[in-house]
Amino acid sequence: MGKNRRKHRTVILESRPSAIDGLFRDITVEMKDNGYGEEDIFAVHLAVEEAFINAVRHGNRMDPQKSTRIEYSVDSRKISVSLTDEGEGFDPEAVPDPRNGENLLKTSGRGLLLISSYMDEVRFNDCGNRVEMTKYKAAV
Predict the structure, then answer these.
(1) CB of 127 within 8 A of CB of 70?
(2) Which domains does the chain have, with CATH numbers?
(3) Where are the beta strands (DSSP E) in 15-140?
(4) What is the pLDDT of residues 33-58, one digit of tens each?
(5) S-S: 133 plus which of 71, 88, 91, 119, CB 3.0-4.6 Å?
(6) pLDDT value at residue 49
(7) Average pLDDT, stretch 72-95?
(8) 70 to each of 37, 38, 59, 135, how far by Cα in Å?
(9) Alpha-carbon span 81 to 90, nearest angstrom
(10) By C-alpha distance, which of 50, 49, 46, 57 is closest to 16?
């Protein structure tokens, strides 16, 4: 019988960008224990970091009284991560595509583009204060 036990974890982090550092260590260990390669680990790290920074800056507006809830599970097939902030949310469809000419020099939207590029599935809740991301383990 192989390793395919899914561990579900929930963490509440305060609204400061460095609050996620310890969680990255835990997620990396679990991904390595489940046979994920460096490319998958990099992709998840980048996407989770972007989503967390967006939650802290845009959702919680750097308010130290607000927090971000992160739920994740890792098994030998996929990793799922969701982040929920205490903000009012946003419409991801309304964020301009940073690859279009008039948006090339704007900083908004790049994080969402990276998240969707590095994760296999990305979904937002209706009000836009929760993102759910899934990355399937790359075939070796």
Answers:
(1) no
(2) 7-136 (3.30.565.10)
(3) 67-74, 78-84, 121-124, 130-136
(4) 999 999 999 999 999 999 999 999 99
(5) 119
(6) 95
(7) 94
(8) 23, 22, 14, 16
(9) 19
(10) 57
